[in-house]
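My current task is to audit a protein record that another person submitted. I have pasted the whole thing underneath without changing anything:
***
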Amino acid sequence: MAVNLKGRDFLALKDYTKEEILYLIDLAADLKARKKKGELVDKLRGKNVALIFEKTSTRTRCSFEVAAFDLGMGVTYLDPKSSQIGQKESIADTARVLSRMFDGIEYRGYGQEIVEELAKYSSVPVWNGLTNEFHPTQMLADMLTIKEHFGKLEGLKLTYMGDARYNMGNSLMVTCAKLGMHFTACTCKEYFPDAELVKLCEGFAKESGGSVTLEEDALKGTKDTDVIYTDVWVSMGEPEEVWAERINALKPYQVNSDIMKNAGENAVFMHCLPAYHDLNTGVGKKVFEKFGMEEIEVTNEVFESAQSIVFDEAENRMHTIKAVMAATLGFEQ
């Protein structure tokens, strides 16, 4: 597939064609295979990347750092305390300064408008590590994982359960629609994705042969689906009243054994992590103390089951992020 992404920003998959997305997935699979063989791919020696993290992360930071090191690049990590972005220095000025020193810039933080502005003023590729609205690097990892398991993407059914208004619901809907998959947001109507984005994705699906469905009934939404996907319902730092509202609204959409049986024995479970499937996290303990729930968005039985492929998915973050950096920085295979 003749695809040239050198110099491109990677901000949201709605900006990429089906062919470009598939190219990145295939490149990631190739880089993964080469890593498993112990083959060095450090063809970007001499290049350096900046990682801006206004929101902390385990998988995203480790994936970018290991991927960059594998490609031979240097890495500078900027957390909220070591960067002046948006505080003493504007986003535009930050972009112009960093792009004079680095060959690529990653941003993980808040509004999509921030990473868009970074890209506007940067002279080097900018990569979205997560914003409130989109999480494109996670999507490539998810699609690589699904393809590894099923041998294909087109025609598969994916159901997202939970709050579908933000980055994961939005991004899965966009990606499935682009790739000819059948996406269902299974949640209460108050938590359906933005109507304008739904309309855009319906257009993508029409072109690709996929579909977009909004469904409130948990059993209808998960019947005979191939992939059941969920994400956390609550986050530390949110007001307690938000926790109560969201947990009460989303209880019918917890992924449990009944949901997986309804999907079928060949269905797989996915989660972008971290997951609150037991009491071994601070959030899990707080929810148990306040609401009496030992498991939140997914039960431990499902999370630890043979149908769960969450750790394959987590590993693939690194391989797909490597593909994004390699492709946009001009890696030659």
In short: DSSP finds 13 helices and nine strands in the chain. The chain has a mean pLDDT of 95. The two ends are 13 Å apart (CA to CA).
